[in-house]
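By way of example, we now present a protein record of this kind:
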Amino acid sequence: SKLNRPFRISKNKIRMQSASAVAIIGAAAPTRYAAPLNDPNCEVWTVNNIAARDTDGRIRADRWFEIHAPRVRTSERWARTAKIPRPQYCRTPSDVLHGLAYPFGEVRAIKDYFANSFAYMLAFAYLQGFQTIGLYGAHLLTGSPRERTVEAACVSWWLGFLEGERVNVIVPETAWGLAQHPALYGDENERLLVGC
């Protein structure tokens, strides 16, 4: 995309024009389509094999994240990942085109609580100093049993941490999304809303 920021990588550091916000993009519709992909003041981060596209249909990604070890991906998928023409944070940066070592030690110094890639991305966005962090297409509460329990709890913790640090957190509303609930606890209508 013409909105992707130019970059240079030297000694495992990236140089890129700064942005005031970051949008972290997952695979789940419809909220992934609510991401501000055409906003030039927003960095776009994507994960694994998820390609976000701008209104012209071109890949929109300023940074890419593949947190998994190569041994847990198929060789075909890893070969595709290795060719991504954007800065990519991973465990083995020498194996990818524009690889950068993800700073596991730095984020674990904040809190050693990571159950999925989104948690790692949220923590890294905080370390990068973004004051607005959006999470789009991360419908963990409608995913697998692990996503609904372990991963959703972890991402919810990081979202709460960010808000406690006065970061503007954006999570689009869905019927059963993260960081939201259809009623306040104790509300007289609560029993009807949860089907009890």
